[in-house]
Amino acid sequence: MEFKRDVWSLLLVLLLGQLVAFSMAASSFASSLIANLGVDAPLTQSFLAYLLLTLVYVPIVLRRRQKLQIAWYWYLALAFFDVQGNYLVVKAYQYSYITSVTLLDCWTVVWVVMLTWYALGTRYSLWQFVGAGTCVAGLALVLLSDAKSQDEQDPKKIPLLGDALVIAGTVGFAFSNVGEEYCVKKKDRVEVVAMLGLFGLLISTVQILVFERKGLEAVTWSPTMISLFAGFAVAIFVFYTVAPFVLKMSGATLFNLSLLTSDMWAVAIRVLFYQQEINRLYYLAFTVVAIGLIIYSLNDRSSDDETAGSTEAPAQYQQLPIEDNSTRIGSSSGSQERTHKEEVHIC
Asked: Smallest Cα–Cα separation from 299: which of 128, 156, 171, 169?
Protein backbone atom coordinates (compact mmCIF):
# COMPACT_ATOMS: atom_id res chain seq x y z
CA MET A 1 0.00 0.00 0.00
CA GLU A 2 2.79 2.40 0.88
CA PHE A 3 4.59 1.65 -2.38
CA LYS A 4 1.42 2.31 -4.39
CA ARG A 5 0.89 5.55 -2.49
CA ASP A 6 4.43 6.66 -3.34
CA VAL A 7 3.91 5.79 -6.99
CA TRP A 8 0.65 7.74 -7.17
CA SER A 9 2.20 10.74 -5.40
CA LEU A 10 5.13 10.67 -7.84
CA LEU A 11 2.75 10.51 -10.81
CA LEU A 12 0.79 13.43 -9.36
CA VAL A 13 3.94 15.53 -9.03
CA LEU A 14 4.98 14.65 -12.58
CA LEU A 15 1.53 15.59 -13.87
CA LEU A 16 1.53 18.91 -12.02
CA GLY A 17 5.06 19.63 -13.21
CA GLN A 18 4.07 19.07 -16.81
CA LEU A 19 0.98 21.25 -16.28
CA VAL A 20 3.28 24.07 -15.12
CA ALA A 21 5.56 23.59 -18.13
CA PHE A 22 2.60 23.46 -20.53
CA SER A 23 1.09 26.64 -19.09
CA MET A 24 4.44 28.39 -19.47
CA ALA A 25 4.74 27.25 -23.10
CA ALA A 26 1.12 28.29 -23.78
CA SER A 27 1.70 31.79 -22.38
CA SER A 28 4.86 32.10 -24.50
CA PHE A 29 2.95 31.00 -27.60
CA ALA A 30 0.18 33.55 -26.96
CA SER A 31 2.70 36.36 -26.37
CA SER A 32 4.63 35.56 -29.54
CA LEU A 33 1.43 35.54 -31.62
CA ILE A 34 0.31 38.86 -30.14
CA ALA A 35 3.71 40.36 -30.96
CA ASN A 36 3.61 39.00 -34.52
CA LEU A 37 0.21 40.65 -35.02
CA GLY A 38 1.85 44.01 -34.33
CA VAL A 39 0.44 44.57 -30.84
CA ASP A 40 2.81 45.89 -28.18
CA ALA A 41 0.91 45.66 -24.88
CA PRO A 42 2.89 43.55 -22.39
CA LEU A 43 1.49 45.35 -19.33
CA THR A 44 -2.08 44.72 -20.46
CA GLN A 45 -1.34 41.01 -20.84
CA SER A 46 -0.03 40.87 -17.29
CA PHE A 47 -2.94 43.00 -16.06
CA LEU A 48 -5.48 40.41 -17.23
CA ALA A 49 -3.52 37.61 -15.55
CA TYR A 50 -3.34 39.48 -12.23
CA LEU A 51 -7.03 40.35 -12.54
CA LEU A 52 -7.92 36.68 -12.85
CA LEU A 53 -5.78 35.81 -9.80
CA THR A 54 -7.44 38.60 -7.82
CA LEU A 55 -10.99 37.57 -8.72
CA VAL A 56 -10.39 33.96 -7.69
CA TYR A 57 -8.12 34.16 -4.63
CA VAL A 58 -8.86 37.49 -2.90
CA PRO A 59 -12.48 36.49 -2.04
CA ILE A 60 -11.12 33.34 -0.39
CA VAL A 61 -8.80 35.40 1.80
CA LEU A 62 -11.57 37.89 2.66
CA ARG A 63 -13.92 35.06 3.63
CA ARG A 64 -11.44 33.92 6.26
CA ARG A 65 -11.64 37.29 8.08
CA GLN A 66 -8.08 37.00 9.32
CA LYS A 67 -5.19 39.41 9.41
CA LEU A 68 -2.46 39.05 6.83
CA GLN A 69 0.36 36.79 7.98
CA ILE A 70 2.87 38.99 6.15
CA ALA A 71 2.88 42.80 6.10
CA TRP A 72 1.25 44.28 2.99
CA TYR A 73 4.34 46.24 1.95
CA TRP A 74 6.30 43.00 1.51
CA TYR A 75 3.60 41.77 -0.86
CA LEU A 76 3.80 45.13 -2.65
CA ALA A 77 7.55 44.69 -3.17
CA LEU A 78 7.06 41.08 -4.28
CA ALA A 79 4.41 42.10 -6.81
CA PHE A 80 6.53 45.01 -8.09
CA PHE A 81 9.42 42.74 -9.04
CA ASP A 82 7.03 40.19 -10.54
CA VAL A 83 5.29 42.81 -12.71
CA GLN A 84 8.61 44.16 -14.00
CA GLY A 85 9.84 40.66 -14.77
CA ASN A 86 6.68 39.83 -16.70
CA TYR A 87 6.78 43.14 -18.54
CA LEU A 88 10.38 42.77 -19.74
CA VAL A 89 10.03 39.13 -20.77
CA VAL A 90 6.76 39.69 -22.64
CA LYS A 91 8.24 42.81 -24.25
CA ALA A 92 11.13 40.68 -25.53
CA TYR A 93 8.78 38.86 -27.93
CA GLN A 94 8.66 42.08 -29.98
CA TYR A 95 12.36 41.63 -30.81
CA SER A 96 13.34 37.99 -30.29
CA TYR A 97 12.03 34.50 -31.01
CA ILE A 98 10.03 32.22 -28.72
CA THR A 99 12.87 29.66 -28.49
CA SER A 100 15.41 32.21 -27.28
CA VAL A 101 13.02 33.84 -24.80
CA THR A 102 11.94 30.58 -23.17
CA LEU A 103 15.48 29.23 -22.91
CA LEU A 104 16.95 32.47 -21.57
CA ASP A 105 14.36 32.30 -18.79
CA CYS A 106 16.73 29.76 -17.23
CA TRP A 107 19.00 32.69 -16.37
CA THR A 108 16.70 33.12 -13.36
CA VAL A 109 18.52 30.19 -11.72
CA VAL A 110 21.81 32.10 -11.84
CA TRP A 111 20.34 35.21 -10.21
CA VAL A 112 18.55 33.10 -7.58
CA VAL A 113 21.84 31.46 -6.58
CA MET A 114 23.52 34.85 -6.22
CA LEU A 115 20.56 36.40 -4.38
CA THR A 116 20.07 33.59 -1.88
CA TRP A 117 23.83 33.39 -1.24
CA TYR A 118 24.08 37.10 -0.45
CA ALA A 119 20.70 37.89 1.12
CA LEU A 120 19.64 34.64 2.80
CA GLY A 121 23.03 33.13 3.57
CA THR A 122 22.27 29.92 1.62
CA ARG A 123 25.37 27.86 0.85
CA TYR A 124 25.67 25.78 -2.30
CA SER A 125 27.81 22.78 -3.10
CA LEU A 126 30.55 22.74 -5.71
CA TRP A 127 28.39 20.68 -8.06
CA GLN A 128 25.61 23.24 -7.87
CA PHE A 129 28.05 25.93 -9.00
CA VAL A 130 29.18 23.60 -11.78
CA GLY A 131 25.55 23.17 -12.86
CA ALA A 132 24.87 26.92 -12.76
CA GLY A 133 28.08 27.61 -14.69
CA THR A 134 27.09 25.05 -17.32
CA CYS A 135 23.73 26.81 -17.71
CA VAL A 136 25.53 30.13 -18.22
CA ALA A 137 27.67 28.55 -20.93
CA GLY A 138 24.56 27.26 -22.68
CA LEU A 139 22.86 30.64 -22.44
CA ALA A 140 25.94 32.26 -23.94
CA LEU A 141 25.50 29.96 -26.92
CA VAL A 142 21.92 31.25 -27.27
CA LEU A 143 23.25 34.81 -27.52
CA LEU A 144 25.80 33.70 -30.11
CA SER A 145 23.10 31.90 -32.07
CA ASP A 146 20.85 34.98 -32.10
CA ALA A 147 23.76 37.22 -33.09
CA LYS A 148 24.44 35.05 -36.15
CA SER A 149 20.77 34.70 -37.13
CA GLN A 150 19.96 38.41 -36.89
CA ASP A 151 17.90 39.70 -39.84
CA GLU A 152 18.04 36.29 -41.56
CA GLN A 153 14.35 35.43 -41.09
CA ASP A 154 12.53 38.55 -39.91
CA PRO A 155 14.09 41.99 -40.51
CA LYS A 156 11.81 43.50 -37.85
CA LYS A 157 13.40 41.37 -35.16
CA ILE A 158 16.38 42.51 -33.09
CA PRO A 159 17.31 39.25 -31.29
CA LEU A 160 20.10 40.62 -29.12
CA LEU A 161 17.85 43.40 -27.79
CA GLY A 162 15.16 40.84 -27.02
CA ASP A 163 17.72 38.65 -25.26
CA ALA A 164 18.84 41.61 -23.15
CA LEU A 165 15.24 42.30 -22.12
CA VAL A 166 14.77 38.66 -21.09
CA ILE A 167 17.93 38.66 -18.98
CA ALA A 168 16.83 41.90 -17.31
CA GLY A 169 13.40 40.37 -16.70
CA THR A 170 14.92 37.33 -15.02
CA VAL A 171 16.36 39.65 -12.37
CA GLY A 172 12.83 40.64 -11.42
CA PHE A 173 11.75 37.00 -11.52
CA ALA A 174 14.64 36.06 -9.21
CA PHE A 175 13.57 38.53 -6.52
CA SER A 176 9.95 37.49 -6.97
CA ASN A 177 10.66 33.75 -6.92
CA VAL A 178 12.89 33.87 -3.84
CA GLY A 179 10.30 35.91 -1.93
CA GLU A 180 7.39 33.78 -3.13
CA GLU A 181 9.12 30.49 -2.29
CA TYR A 182 9.92 31.72 1.21
CA CYS A 183 6.34 32.90 1.76
CA VAL A 184 4.80 29.72 0.38
CA LYS A 185 6.92 27.45 2.55
CA LYS A 186 6.62 29.54 5.73
CA LYS A 187 3.14 31.05 5.42
CA ASP A 188 -0.14 30.49 3.57
CA ARG A 189 -0.04 29.68 -0.15
CA VAL A 190 -3.50 31.09 -0.90
CA GLU A 191 -2.71 34.40 0.79
CA VAL A 192 0.55 34.73 -1.15
CA VAL A 193 -1.09 34.13 -4.53
CA ALA A 194 -4.03 36.40 -3.66
CA MET A 195 -1.84 39.33 -2.57
CA LEU A 196 0.48 38.83 -5.51
CA GLY A 197 -2.52 39.09 -7.82
CA LEU A 198 -4.03 42.10 -6.02
CA PHE A 199 -0.88 44.22 -5.82
CA GLY A 200 0.22 43.08 -9.27
CA LEU A 201 -3.13 44.31 -10.56
CA LEU A 202 -2.68 47.73 -8.92
CA ILE A 203 0.91 48.18 -10.12
CA SER A 204 0.18 47.10 -13.69
CA THR A 205 -2.85 49.44 -13.80
CA VAL A 206 -0.71 52.43 -12.85
CA GLN A 207 1.98 51.53 -15.36
CA ILE A 208 -0.57 51.04 -18.14
CA LEU A 209 -1.98 54.54 -17.55
CA VAL A 210 1.53 56.01 -17.66
CA PHE A 211 3.34 54.00 -20.35
CA GLU A 212 0.91 51.93 -22.41
CA ARG A 213 -2.31 53.89 -22.80
CA LYS A 214 -1.65 55.11 -26.35
CA GLY A 215 -0.48 51.72 -27.56
CA LEU A 216 -3.56 50.08 -26.04
CA GLU A 217 -5.89 52.50 -27.81
CA ALA A 218 -4.39 51.46 -31.16
CA VAL A 219 -5.21 47.77 -30.67
CA THR A 220 -7.92 46.31 -32.92
CA TRP A 221 -9.92 44.02 -30.66
CA SER A 222 -10.88 41.20 -32.99
CA PRO A 223 -12.13 37.82 -31.68
CA THR A 224 -8.67 36.39 -32.38
CA MET A 225 -6.95 39.13 -30.40
CA ILE A 226 -9.34 38.76 -27.45
CA SER A 227 -8.78 35.01 -27.47
CA LEU A 228 -5.00 35.44 -27.39
CA PHE A 229 -5.12 37.87 -24.46
CA ALA A 230 -7.54 35.60 -22.60
CA GLY A 231 -5.41 32.55 -23.33
CA PHE A 232 -2.32 34.28 -21.96
CA ALA A 233 -4.20 35.25 -18.78
CA VAL A 234 -5.52 31.71 -18.23
CA ALA A 235 -2.07 30.19 -18.83
CA ILE A 236 -0.42 32.53 -16.30
CA PHE A 237 -3.24 31.87 -13.82
CA VAL A 238 -2.63 28.12 -14.08
CA PHE A 239 1.12 28.67 -13.70
CA TYR A 240 0.79 30.73 -10.49
CA THR A 241 -1.80 28.31 -9.11
CA VAL A 242 0.07 25.05 -9.69
CA ALA A 243 3.70 26.16 -9.21
CA PRO A 244 3.45 26.47 -5.38
CA PHE A 245 2.13 22.88 -5.19
CA VAL A 246 5.08 21.56 -7.20
CA LEU A 247 7.58 23.51 -5.10
CA LYS A 248 6.03 22.24 -1.89
CA MET A 249 5.66 18.61 -2.97
CA SER A 250 8.95 18.06 -4.79
CA GLY A 251 11.10 21.16 -4.31
CA ALA A 252 13.14 22.91 -6.99
CA THR A 253 14.52 19.66 -8.46
CA LEU A 254 11.48 18.44 -10.38
CA PHE A 255 10.23 22.01 -10.82
CA ASN A 256 13.31 23.03 -12.82
CA LEU A 257 13.30 19.81 -14.82
CA SER A 258 9.61 20.27 -15.61
CA LEU A 259 10.15 23.82 -16.84
CA LEU A 260 12.87 22.51 -19.10
CA THR A 261 10.24 20.66 -21.16
CA SER A 262 8.59 23.99 -21.99
CA ASP A 263 11.72 24.84 -24.00
CA MET A 264 11.20 21.67 -26.04
CA TRP A 265 7.65 22.74 -26.77
CA ALA A 266 8.92 26.19 -27.77
CA VAL A 267 11.13 24.57 -30.40
CA ALA A 268 8.18 22.57 -31.72
CA ILE A 269 6.01 25.72 -31.84
CA ARG A 270 8.63 27.66 -33.79
CA VAL A 271 9.11 24.85 -36.32
CA LEU A 272 5.47 23.72 -36.74
CA PHE A 273 3.53 26.98 -36.44
CA TYR A 274 6.03 29.59 -37.68
CA GLN A 275 7.75 27.40 -40.30
CA GLN A 276 11.12 28.75 -39.15
CA GLU A 277 14.46 26.99 -39.13
CA ILE A 278 16.44 26.65 -35.91
CA ASN A 279 20.10 27.58 -35.78
CA ARG A 280 22.25 24.54 -34.98
CA LEU A 281 23.86 26.39 -32.11
CA TYR A 282 20.48 26.48 -30.41
CA TYR A 283 20.30 22.69 -30.19
CA LEU A 284 23.77 22.64 -28.67
CA ALA A 285 22.76 25.41 -26.26
CA PHE A 286 19.61 23.51 -25.27
CA THR A 287 21.66 20.38 -24.54
CA VAL A 288 24.20 22.29 -22.46
CA VAL A 289 21.51 24.08 -20.44
CA ALA A 290 19.70 20.76 -19.89
CA ILE A 291 22.88 19.18 -18.54
CA GLY A 292 23.50 22.19 -16.30
CA LEU A 293 19.97 22.15 -14.87
CA ILE A 294 20.16 18.42 -14.21
CA ILE A 295 23.49 18.78 -12.38
CA TYR A 296 22.16 21.69 -10.35
CA SER A 297 18.82 20.04 -9.58
CA LEU A 298 20.28 16.69 -8.50
CA ASN A 299 22.40 18.49 -5.92
CA ASP A 300 19.68 20.90 -4.80
CA ARG A 301 18.13 18.72 -2.07
CA SER A 302 21.20 18.81 0.15
CA SER A 303 21.24 22.61 0.30
CA ASP A 304 17.52 22.67 1.06
CA ASP A 305 18.05 20.29 3.97
CA GLU A 306 20.90 22.40 5.29
CA THR A 307 18.78 25.53 5.04
CA ALA A 308 15.89 23.84 6.81
CA GLY A 309 18.20 22.67 9.56
CA SER A 310 19.73 26.11 10.00
CA THR A 311 16.31 27.78 10.23
CA GLU A 312 14.93 25.18 12.60
CA ALA A 313 17.57 25.70 15.28
CA PRO A 314 16.96 29.43 15.85
CA ALA A 315 13.21 28.77 16.04
CA GLN A 316 13.74 26.29 18.86
CA TYR A 317 16.19 28.61 20.56
CA GLN A 318 13.65 31.44 20.57
CA GLN A 319 11.11 29.19 22.23
CA LEU A 320 13.23 28.70 25.36
CA PRO A 321 12.22 32.00 27.06
CA ILE A 322 8.56 31.18 26.40
CA GLU A 323 8.97 27.78 27.97
CA ASP A 324 10.73 29.29 30.97
CA ASN A 325 8.12 31.98 31.51
CA SER A 326 5.25 29.57 31.16
CA THR A 327 6.88 27.24 33.69
CA ARG A 328 7.15 30.01 36.25
CA ILE A 329 3.61 31.24 35.71
CA GLY A 330 1.60 28.06 35.33
CA SER A 331 1.75 24.33 35.47
CA SER A 332 3.78 22.07 33.21
CA SER A 333 0.69 21.11 31.17
CA GLY A 334 -0.02 24.75 30.38
CA SER A 335 3.62 25.12 29.40
CA GLN A 336 3.34 22.30 26.90
CA GLU A 337 0.18 23.78 25.35
CA ARG A 338 1.80 27.20 24.92
CA THR A 339 4.94 25.62 23.46
CA HIS A 340 2.88 23.54 21.02
CA LYS A 341 0.94 26.63 19.88
CA GLU A 342 4.17 28.56 19.39
CA GLU A 343 5.65 25.77 17.27
CA VAL A 344 2.54 25.66 15.06
CA HIS A 345 2.70 29.43 14.62
CA ILE A 346 6.34 29.33 13.55
CA CYS A 347 5.78 26.52 11.09
From this structure: 128
